């Protein structure tokens, strides 16, 4: 799912996002509650009409901002109070208000409000977050009035397997439409993330969607698919695209580097995206060095196409589990593939 945090997949028209192969996009409750406001979006016909997107939309509940904006919030058993990163005003989110905001936005899939602890948090902190997540999820389920919106629960528990199992079992008892795994890729080691997924995901109901939140490197996606995950979102395709980083099947390209100055080649020879069909590495590098907005647009577009190609091939090979073929076609997804990402912040 391409991420449109503030109701826009940054720099791209909805038609361009759709043409990449994306069927569903993601937006964020916290950011839209601050600006322009859920009430206004509801009055204007809901999020689909507001942004001109006729496909499914998923909205996160704001629980991730408990982690990413930790210096701007205060957590209690009743909810989370944020100091707006825009103008300093206060915003309180709790299970009832987060659900109500998502009801007003009108997304097709909405998320239960949760607490996402840091990856290096101690057991006591994580246990408290799990307890709140379970209680808040039950409150979201009780107060969610719309039959046309699927409500997903979010499993927390950090790297503590018993806490993950406890959270998953309690959420399964509440019978959500789908189940997400949150609180990964937030500072823990990759090995710990894979261990959590391998142990946890098979416990989730196989007949309902299983969604890994905020994980987006190809090798991490493949590991999660092999554990049984169905859905992914991440800001990497567009955020990295805006910073001159192109994903390809073999290795990433950092287009600001001098080596691309005179390369009259597409980003990927066999890529069917509009960027690769028309523009060279040398031209895209020039756009970045000249500060032209089309550079980030072209790389963001290519990166969306890359991830949709990759996911399509993963789907093709799931029945046969022929991962050797996948890795031959996408070496970047190998365990030893590049996995370092330039980070400019959590928000898309």
């Amino acid at each position: 799912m391409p991420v449109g945090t503030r109701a826009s997949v940054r720099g791209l028209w909805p038609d361009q996002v759709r043409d990449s192969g994306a069927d569903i996009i993601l937006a964020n409750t916290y950011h839209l509650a601050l600006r322009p406001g859920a009430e206004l979006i509801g009055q204007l016909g809901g999020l689909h009409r507001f942004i001109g997107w006729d496909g499914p939309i998923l909205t996160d509940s704001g629980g991730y901002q408990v982690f990413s904006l930790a210096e701007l919030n205060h957590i209690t058993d009743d909810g989370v109070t944020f100091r707006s990163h825009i103008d300093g005003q206060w915003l309180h989110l709790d299970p009832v208000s987060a659900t109500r905001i998502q009801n007003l936005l009108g997304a097709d899939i909405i998320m239960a409000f949760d607490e996402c602890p840091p990856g290096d948090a101690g057991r006591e902190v994580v246990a408290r977050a799990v307890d709140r997540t379970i209680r808040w999820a039950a409150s979201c389920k009780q107060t969610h009035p719309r039959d046309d919106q699927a409500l997903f629960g979010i499993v927390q528990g950090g790297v503590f397997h018993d806490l993950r199992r406890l959270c998953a079992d309690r959420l399964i008892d509440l019978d959500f439409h789908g189940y997400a795994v949150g609180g990964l890729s937030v500072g823990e080691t990759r090995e710990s993330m894979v261990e959590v997924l391998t142990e946890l995901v098979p416990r989730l109901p196989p007949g309902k969607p299983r969604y890994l939140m905020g994980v987006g490197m190809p090798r991490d996606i493949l590991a999660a698919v092999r554990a049984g995950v169905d859905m992914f979102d991440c800001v990497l395709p567009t955020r990295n695209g805006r910073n001159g980083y192109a994903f390809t099947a073999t290795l990433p390209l950092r287009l600001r580097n001098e080596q691309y100055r005179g390369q009259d080649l597409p980003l990927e020879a066999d890529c069917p995206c509009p960027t690769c069909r028309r523009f060279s590495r040398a031209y895209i590098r020039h756009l970045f060095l000249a500060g032209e907005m089309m550079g980030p647009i072209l790389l963001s577009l290519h990166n969306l196409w890359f991830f949709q190609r990759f996911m399509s091939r993963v789907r093709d090979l799931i029945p046969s589990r022929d991962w050797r073929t996948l890795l031959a076609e996408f070496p970047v997804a190998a365990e030893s593939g590049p996995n370092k990402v330039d980070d400019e912040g959590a928000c898309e």
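The two ends are 13 Å apart (CA to CA). The first helix runs from residue 14 to 19.
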